[in-house]
Description:
Elements: E1 5-8, E2 11-14, H1 15-34, H2 41-66, H3 68-73, H4 88-105, H5 110-119, H6 121-138, E3 157-161, E4 167-171, H7 173-192, H8 200-217, H9 236-257
Antiparallel strand pairs: 1-2, 3-4
Helix pairs in contact: 1-6, 2-4, 5-8, 6-7, 6-8, 7-8, 8-9
Amino acid sequence: MIVSQLDIGPFTIPVFSAMLAGALALGLGSGVYRLRGQTSAGRAIDAYLAALIGGLIGARAGHVLLHWPYFAAHPDEIIRLNAGGLDPHGALIGGLIGFGIMVRWRGIPAADRRRVLDAAAPALALIALAGWIGCVAAGCGYGAEVATLAAVPPPIAAELPDRFGIGAPRYNTQIFGAGLALVALGALALLDRRDPPPGARFWLTVALLYAGLFVVGFLRGDSVPLIFGLDAGLRADQALNLLLMGGSGWRAVGCWRA
């Protein structure tokens, strides 16, 4: 039985929200710890909080845009975060905008900005991992249906619900996504041994995470627009994954060339 909510005293908290909150606290706490002695902890925390606020706004905006036909008919739900719906592409873009505004306002030097970003790289992978695990409980990011479980062995497919709670044999996309997030965490651990230039850890992590989203997108069952309206075309979110993966990879290469 999949548990979707946690009862903590008088409070009921969705498992998805609890997973994300825990990953944020652990990841950003680790980031501040990694920066000890390198830059002001207070300024780094301000930058992370601004990135968090910008990321939440961007995540919701991205979800609304990707599902605009629905929200055009239900405009009252656009700002209802408790109804679910956060987009990872908008989260990254909004987070970087919030981060950029704060580091300039707080006067963090360019070299230190790259170190602050690098320190947050594990947080990105942890948030991705927590998001995919939380989606098991929330039914988000669910896989496309398969004809029968007999033809697709576990754990590739299983009897799983969609976001409306309707169960069916589906690709186990949430587990695939969680596994790829673990790969990103492992790559970070290996990268630390090579002493990469400032900024490279962050941008490589972003590239790996969006590469994973792109791959999993081929097996997802939730509906988003297709590029150019082609029945067999890429999903719009996959196109965004490619753009962010390529742009982040380019920025990582630039860090080594600098």
